Amino acid sequence: MSHPVHGLPFLPGSSFTDSTKTAFHRSQTLGYRNGYAVTRRPTVGIGGQRLPVNQLSQDALDELANMKPALTYGQPKQAPPAAFLPAHVAFDKKVLKFDAYFQEDVPMSTEEHYRIRQVHIYYYLEDDSMSIIEPVVENSGILQGKLIKRQRLSKNDRGDHYHWKDLNRGINLTVYGKTFRIVDCDLFTQEFLESQGIELNPPEKMALDPYTELRKQPLRKYVTPSDFDQLKQFLSFDKQVLRFYAIWDDTDNMFGECRSYIIHYYLMDDTVEIREIHERNNGRDPFPLLVNRQHLPKVLVENAKNFPQCVLEISDQEVLEWYTAKDFIVGKTITILGRTFFIYDCDPFTRQYYKEKFGIADLPHIDVSKKEPPPVKQELPPYNGFGLIEDSAQNCFALIPKAPQKDVIKMLLNENKVLRYLAAMESPIPEDKGRRFIFSYFLATDMISIFEPPVRNSGIIGGKYLGRTRIFKPNSLLDNPVYYGPGDFFIGAVIDVFGHRFVILDVDEYVLKYMESNAAQYSPEALASVQNHVRQQEAPAPELANKQTEDPGTQELETLIEEIQKQLKDYACKDNIREAFQDHDKEASGYVDRETFFKICESFSVPLDDSLVKELIRICSHDEGRINYYNFVRAFSN
């Protein structure tokens, strides 16, 4: 215990451990009176230290905690709190019981592969401990009894222990490397868990030990000898053989094929042989038999799946049922030693035998000759966007692709002939509306390249936009694509380039000459649009000429700015006024409304009463009620 030094507050750093103290025991809270356990409140603290005199009792603290103001009927009387009862008294002799089992491997026995051991799991509520006990079975030869003594069992590597909330029916419980399957619990355990709000799983059946169940069976089994006379069968059916024609279709596997066989069934001893049918020059070794004459098993016993058939012969003890004559029916499949044979025909003696013996008449004759499949139409895969469609299609026609054929005469006649067009991009994005591109159409190869002239301070890097390639029209088929030609380019034409739309705005002089010399390739409307556009460019625009000679607005603005800078050269606004306007212009448009403009001018004490300043504001004013502060700031800055 630590106590503060006299005169210092009880704070961290002001208390020290009493080195002379040796007793640290706690007072007893349980006593016995007349043989009954009763509780009592401690009168002293740890080590016999005296408790503070003014400390409230637990009853007084509970009364204060439950006190509620009542104005109408006064203070209500609270029920006295429950008496303090330790856990080892409240849950004394209360134990949860679960029925479980675990599986144990038996590697050194031929009679059993594993055994089931049933156990009881006990959970002691007073201290959350558990124990696992296996009921003792006489003459079992196994150490039974208490498997795990009473203790708290770890649930995980973090040191947590199993709690009764973790237990339920139908779950697995892993303890010390063994997994126990909980199947059921007793009535007290069920009522306790349901009272605590836990939903119990339905009970399961207890697993039984297979070797114990085997011991319960009678020791001797008698088999009545068969009255079938094998000698009579040999004498009656000697030299009588059923012949079936079958095929083995193995085309689903790699290097598999469809082969024909003859199945012989000997009625004298129920043996079967399978013979191969060899054709002339089939390239196979002349082995006559696929399966030698033998008894073929149909159903094996459960334990005979791992029987070494390649070393030992299968006897009657490993077989439950053998193949008989009724298993060979025309039109059905039969699996013999892992191979599936389809029986499609038989000989006349076999048909007569099935009619007399089994009452099956008119066995069918199935045609198994394979017809040549119809030719499959070769479909090209989807275009991936790399290279030309013709180049990509050559990989589908041959293993070693060849270059597609080119029109050499056209390449020689149109060498170095290029048609150039000016186009604008159609895009909902505002930044792309003013972009201009130059289309170059190469007549020798029908390829198109796109170049974007660099524009300073545009924020877009110009240069090569698209290399030389052939551009196919939208909604064209891959097997027969339609490409853009010279006739598709005219003034106002819309060109779709891989999802981007461009509008032709202008052409060079060589385009007009080429179109007039090859008028058959163009429509009359396309030729007329280019001719009219070229004539308009050659004619001088009178309005533009008059504007250049008669519009004195720019000259007047520059003269006014120079005059203001001379007269107000001592004005000390400098660049601060520019920053103020830019802070209010969030869109960087260069304009602000009139109210914001005059507020900023008043904050910087701009002489608005001056006649030159008034004239400058008039020139910078816009029709929409906004003012261009860019030219205005030039008059008051460097």
Task: Characterise this structure.
This protein is of the alpha+beta class. The chain folds into five domains: 2-65, no CATH class; 92-215, PH-domain like, CATH 2.30.29; 230-357, PH-domain like; 411-538, PH-domain like, CATH 2.30.29; 550-634, no CATH class. It is 22% helix and 25% strand. It has 16 helices and 26 strands. The protein has a six-stranded antiparallel β-sheet with strand order 8-7-6-5-10-9, with helices on one face. Strand 12 (258-266) and strand 13 (271-276) form a beta hairpin. Helix 12 runs antiparallel to helix 15 and helix 13 (576-584) packs antiparallel against helix 14 (594-603). The longest helix is centred in the C-terminal third of the chain and has 15 residues, at 524-538. The radius of gyration is 52 Å and the shape is flat. The two termini are 78 Å apart. The model is unreliable at 543-552 (pLDDT under 50).
Give the overall pLDDT as a whole number. Answer: 83
Q: Give the second-level CATH assignment, the architecture of the largest domain.
A: Roll
What is the share of helical residues? 10-25%
Number of helices: 16
CATH third-tier fold name of the largest domain: PH-domain like
Structural class: alpha+beta
